[in-house]
Write a structure and sequence with these properties.
This protein is of the alpha+beta class. The chain folds into 2 domains: about 110 residues, Homeodomain-like (Arc Repressor Mutant, subunit A), CATH 1.10.10; about 140 residues, Alpha-Beta Plaits, CATH 3.30.70.270. It is about 50% helix and about 15% strand. The strands form 3 sheets. A 5-stranded mixed beta sheet has the order 1-5-6-4-9, with helices on both faces. A two-stranded antiparallel ribbon has the order 2-3. A two-stranded antiparallel sheet has the order 7-8. β5 and β6 form a beta hairpin. The longest helix is centred in the N-terminal third of the chain and has 19 residues. The protein is globular, with a radius of gyration of 19 Å. The termini are far apart.
């Protein structure tokens, strides 16, 4: 229970002081634990460093502001602690897979990096926007995609990995129609909430995106072929889901729907 108290205190402090540029030492002090102990505990429990978690939470809330307000990107960058719009845009695209300007235009993949919660039942992450979107389309198909060979792309560089994710989102948007919502539900996994009640339409949409398989994106002038995989199915999320994104990913993937694959 002591560990839960320390981690919960750290998570609450981060959420309350996200825009204060608080240091890791400040967070450890608030959690009544040494900095080294908190760093080890945080990464072991959640799989993220403290700084990575803070960055992803900042960019998720910044994305919400971009879509709901008209605040200039430069002002938003300053608000979230960045000294330039370029640095802010790089961080933003790592989490949301598009630049801020494209996100505001609607070419987005909504991140579901909502605050973590931990208790005796385990780790929970609420995703109200994802649940709401699925409930609105509960009789329709959800089409999911991921990047094949992402580990090898990241071995080239993390920057190449980020470009691969941005290209994946661009391809999905190329075939998306109005009112479709895209959510980033994992490291390289995306869910598209469609208006299609028939599996044939979902299959056709997935096939359209996968028709681009093998087309390259460019990293430092060099072509890197990109391949996506897809699966799809109907699903209804529950309000009580401890991690809606993970539940969606598993329920859709393991419904028995044939997975489309077209990779090298």
């Amino acid at each position: 229970m002591q560990k839960y108290f320390e981690l919960t205190s750290a998570l609450e402090y981060i959420e309350d002081h996200m825009l204060d540029n608080c240091s890791q030492a400040d967070i450890a002090h608030a959690a009544c634990v040494s900095l080294s102990a908190l760093q080890k505990m945080f990464r072991f429990t959640f799989g993220y460093s403290i700084n990575e978690y803070i960055m992803k939470r900042k960019m998720t809330t910044a994305a919400e502001e971009l879509s709901e307000t008209k605040i200039p990107v430069a002002d938003l960058a300053f608000k979230y602690g960045y000294t330039s719009t370029e640095a802010f845009s790089r961080a933003f695209s790592k989490v949301n897979c598009v630049l801020p300007s494209e996100y505001r235009k609607g070419k987005r993949a909504q991140a579901v990096f909502t605050p973590l919660q931990i208790d005796d039942t385990g780790i929970r992450r609420k995703s109200p926007l994802l649940i709401e979107a699925v409930h609105r389309a509960k009789d329709c198909y959800i089409v999911c995609f991921d990047v094949a060979g992402m580990v090898k792309i990241n071995e080239i560089s993390k920057e190449a990995g980020n470009l691969a994710l941005m290209e994946a989102v661009r391809r999905i948007h190329t075939h998306a129609v109005e009112n479709m919502q895209i959510f980033r539900i994992g490291g390289d996994e995306f869910a598209l909430i469609t208006p299609y009640p028939n599996i044939s339409d979902a299959e056709a949409f997935a096939a359209g995106v996968l028709a681009h398989n093998g087309e390259p994106f460019f990293y430092k002038g060099q072509p890197v072929p990109l391949y996506l995989r897809s699966w799809y199915g109907k699903n209804v999320l529950t309000e009580a889901a401890p991690n809606p994104a993970k539940e969606l990913q598993q329920k859709v993937k393991y419904q028995g729907v044939t997975e489309i694959q077209n990779e090298k």
